[in-house]
Amino acid sequence: MRRRVIDLPPEQTQGLVKIREEITEQIEYQPSRFYRLQLVRPVYAHPKKAHAPVVAALPPQVIPQAGVGPGFIAHVLTAKYVDHLPLYRQERIDARGGVWIGRQARCRYVEAAAHLLITIRAQLIERILHSRYVQVDETFTKLIDPERRGRSRDAYLWGYHAPLEKVVVFEFSPTRSGTILYDFFPEKWSGVVQTDGAAMYPSVFKHRPNITHGSVAARLCAIDRARRRHR
Q: Angle, to 10 degrees, between the axis of helix 70-81 and the axis of helix 103-131?
């Protein structure tokens, strides 16, 4: 919230008493603000040169020697994958804000950040499997088909959710085949997996005796049968 006071000249208010304010609210916009951050590290030397000068270590950098901070890297990734802005458009937009960083450099930032995100994904999967209780579901998404120019086909995002850990991971698959579950759950993993009533889940988990498969549909059917018995 910012306030901008528009007052009368002093000669027009002389002898008057302020009794209230007329307030008009507007939604305003300010383009992205960039700033140059200097990491200053004083260098100290012994007055008699008894040892080499000493300086504090540089804090760990997301992308060493890239010349950009984590906020700018997040800005590039968000613009590309959330706002769907190609790197060449980001290049031009940010140039209007006074920052010129070419698309080639931005491409390197995206690649380096992807490698870092892969390690985070691996840790999330580890937490999900450690919880021993996983909810699984799949939903379709559109995939541009390179074999049919200008057309798309259905692909799938598989979601793995550990409610006790409050962790979720999504994996992409061009098909709805349940074989992707074999890759996610190690062969010797044991625990409870909850799904909907899709047909591929029982066919997959019947080959994994260490996994207890709980279907939401099966649970509802059991409740319905119990209700009928008590009628």
A: 90
